[in-house]
Design brief:
Helix content is 13%, strand content 45%. It is mainly beta. Residues 112-126 have a biased composition (Basic and acidic residues).
Length: 141
């Protein structure tokens, strides 16, 4: 009985707010996150996406690093006050991904900003968020 009570107490403590739990989280930082609402000819929203940019001092322009479709409101950029900026978080299987940006903009367009940016910087030349090959979603838009 005593072991059962100890196990129950340990389980309760492990889910209390503020307790430290090991997490499998990867983090990246960018200069700008754009929340883009892609709209059709009638002004109806087709999809939402977040596009992650870094400023290129050499080219004097924002260049896409990665993008992803917003599949749930929890994946929308959230304001962070300390440090000041914006945080985008999503679950990728067992991995939590977080991208922090200094700045955010929100756009409504009939042009996909990620595709437009490909004309300035091909996908093969993008700096990936997480290392390895370029990070982007492969689904058609």
């Amino acid at each position: 009985m005593m072991m059962l009570l100890q196990a129950a107490a340990l389980a309760a403590v492990s889910v209390l707010p503020g307790t430290i739990q090991p997490t499998n989280t990867t983090r990246a930082t960018v200069d700008l996150v754009e929340l883009n609402h892609f709209i059709d000819e009638s002004g109806r929203e087709v999809f939402q996406q977040v596009v992650f940019f870094d400023w290129s001092t050499g080219n004097r322009q924002f260049e896409v690093r990665a993008w992803r479709l917003v599949k749930d409101p929890s994946q929308l950029p959230r304001r962070s006050w300390s440090p000041s900026g914006y945080l985008v978080t999503w679950q990728d299987k067992d991995l939590t991904r977080e991208v922090w940006a200094k700045n955010m903009r929100e756009t409504w367009s009939q042009q996909d900003p990620e595709r437009v940016n490909r004309e300035l910087l091909p996908e093969s030349q993008r700096r990936p968020l997480w290392g390895g090959k370029p990070e982007f979603e492969s689904s058609d838009r």
